[in-house]
Amino acid sequence: MTATHDAPHDAAGLARLVDHTLLKPEATVADVQALVEEAARLGVYSVCVSPSFLPLDTSAAPGLHVATVCGFPSGKHHSDVKAAEAARSVRDGADEVDMVIDVGAAIEGRFDAVEADIAAVRAATPGDVVLKVIIESAALTDEQVVAVCEAAERAGADFVKTSTGFHPAGGATVHAVELMARTVGGRLGVKASGGIRTSADAVAMVQAGATRLGLSGTAAVLAGLEADAGY
């Protein structure tokens, strides 16, 4: 039987689980400034932006965390390049790094290579920097999802994350989140990201075991929760 986790019962509670995200290639400096301002208004946990936007001025949002991506979105970068990118992002003020694995290596069953890739990025970042590992769960079998989550834990990651949101196979699913949460057993966080567009989607992901949500349409999701008489 799958465990059901409690979801926040109001928009403010859900907001504290959200990485408010803008990773579109056409994003501008003005767009990112607007993102930070909206993040302050919504009370989210963090903003997640491309590394070229760092360092980020968050003076309008005291306490806001800054996340960025690494090896994004393909994961087909040499490990030393990913490590250098992550280290540069930390120097530029990132509190959290969301790295993409080599999905093809996972599909081929080369989980030692996946683990080494993650370990290289972990070694390049201080221990107090949160490392999330994007596994593209929609492109993997259940067995591969489990093996990648286990590799991420061995390599010292803090979170496993479903998706970049850019893969044609799709984004987060309740099934994938349940499987990932069961595999890491609370020892790592689980971030659901990709295609979460409604309050019902968001609540379902948290109930399945997500401890963080990656959302680009955060305002609409939170407004939907406020409008739902059950929350």
UniProtKB/TrEMBL annotation:
It is an enzyme of class 4 (lyase). It catalyses: 2-deoxy-D-ribose 5-phosphate = D-glyceraldehyde 3-phosphate + acetaldehyde. SUPFAM superfamilies: Aldolase. Pathway: Carbohydrate degradation; 2-deoxy-D-ribose 1-phosphate degradation; D-glyceraldehyde 3-phosphate and acetaldehyde from 2-deoxy-alpha-D-ribose 1-phosphate: step 2/2. Gene3D superfamilies: Aldolase class I (3.20.20.70). GO terms for molecular function: deoxyribose-phosphate aldolase activity. InterPro entries: Aldolase_TIM (IPR013785), DeoC (IPR011343), DeoC/FbaB/LacD_aldolase (IPR002915), DeoC_typeI (IPR028581). It comes from the Bacteria. It is found in: Cytoplasm. GO terms for biological process: 2-deoxyribose 1-phosphate catabolic process; carbohydrate catabolic process; deoxyribonucleotide catabolic process. One of its GO terms (cellular component) is cytoplasm. Its EC number is 4.1.2.4. Keywords: Cytoplasm, Lyase, Schiff base. The active site is at residues 98, 161, 191. It holds the Pfam family DeoC. Belongs to the DeoC/FbaB aldolase family. DeoC type 1 subfamily. Catalyzes a reversible aldol reaction between acetaldehyde and D-glyceraldehyde 3-phosphate to generate 2-deoxy-D-ribose 5-phosphate. This is Deoxyribose-phosphate aldolase. It comes from Cellulomonas fimi (strain ATCC 484 / DSM 20113 / JCM 1341 / CCUG 24087 / LMG 16345 / NBRC 15513 / NCIMB 8980 / NCTC 7547 / NRS-133).
